[in-house]
Amino acid sequence: MKAAERHPDLIGGVLSRGYVELSDGSKRKITDGVTLQEADQISELVQSRECRVTAETGVACGISTLAICMGLERAGIAGCHHFGIDPNQLTTYSGAALQLLQQHGLERHFELLNGPTHLEAPKLLERKVLLISRSSTGGTRSTIRCWISFTWISCSKLEA
Q1: Which alpha helices (H) appear in 49-112, and where do they start and end?
Q2: Packing angle, helices 96-103 and 63-75, rounded to 10
Q3: Is 68 within a domain?
Q4: The whole model's pTM is what?
Q5: Is residue 160 part of a domain?
Q6: What is the domain range of residue 70?
Q7: pLDDT averaged over the chain?
Q8: In sequence order, what are the beta bridge partners of 48?
Q9: Whole-angstrom Cα distance, residue 115 to residue 28?
Q10: 129 Cα distance to chain centroid
């Protein structure tokens, strides 16, 4: 049974708890602006479109990242992958998104690009991945900004 199927309300549970438990046992309060409804919509969109490669900018505590990786898992397509571009994941967020994925068995779908978007996004292009980038001004995400800052890569099943 796939990890995402074992936890049908996984994101709701994480949001209700309000924190991500880090590898050292400490707790990182979830400060993402992604709601349960938005996370469910993101996951469903990734699954229904049978996305193979996705990316986002700013993974923070990992709620949207978890939703995307759950959608990839549920789609059941071999080799699907999600990239997260975030220069603050290992510092400001203490690897919270990475821990969250590991705790739920979804880390195999994810790769952190640990740097600013203007330096990391071109690396995806070098891998012959089509990048459609939208930027946000940063800060707390509202519903609209969550979707604006979300970056999709080759969600339309591009051939290599």
Answers
A1: 63-75, 96-103
A2: 40
A3: yes
A4: 0.78
A5: no
A6: 3-153
A7: 79
A8: none
A9: 21
A10: 17
